[in-house]
Amino acid sequence: MNMMDMFGKMKEVQSRMKDAQENLSAITETGEAGAGLVKVTVNGLKNVLKIDIDPDLIKPDDREMLQDLIVAATNKALSNVETKAREQLRQATEGLLPNIPGLNLDGLMQ
């Protein structure tokens, strides 16, 4: 592969990555904790979109447990959406770059 072809491919990769990153806001995942008592929905940009809390959990005595469940559900949702986002970015650049050992495009997702 000559240098001009490589630069052309890199421009195409940049364009596809930009498009894929713009589409990350459309990817959503929901994490649950406490057997579904707390649900947190996030998008591929790692923004929390929604928190659902079962009304039975909203009691002053259960405040610490509720906080723990929100954290657990948020972490689960973020983990799930990261997997989806990585897959979308992988698909967006599939076939554009040669298989180069050690080349990691994960930093482009942030």
UniProtKB/TrEMBL annotation:
Q: What InterPro entries is this protein classified in?
A: YbaB-like_sf (IPR036894), YbaB/EbfC (IPR004401)
Any Pfam family matching the protein: YbaB_DNA_bd
Which residues are in coiled coils? 3-30
Q: Does the keyword Protein biosynthesis apply?
A: no
Q: Where in the cell is it found?
A: Cytoplasm, Nucleoid
Q: Does the keyword Oxidoreductase apply?
A: no
Keywords, comma-separated and alphabetical: Coiled coil, Cytoplasm, DNA-binding
Tell me where it mainly resides.
Answer: cytoplasm
Oligomeric state and partners?
Homodimer.
PANTHER family linked to this entry: NUCLEOID-ASSOCIATED PROTEIN YBAB
Q: In which family does this protein belong, per the annotation?
A: Belongs to the YbaB/EbfC family.
Function description: Binds to DNA and alters its conformation. May be involved in regulation of gene expression, nucleoid organization and DNA protection.
Name of the protein: Nucleoid-associated protein ACFS25_23505
Q: Which species is listed as the source?
A: Spirosoma flavum
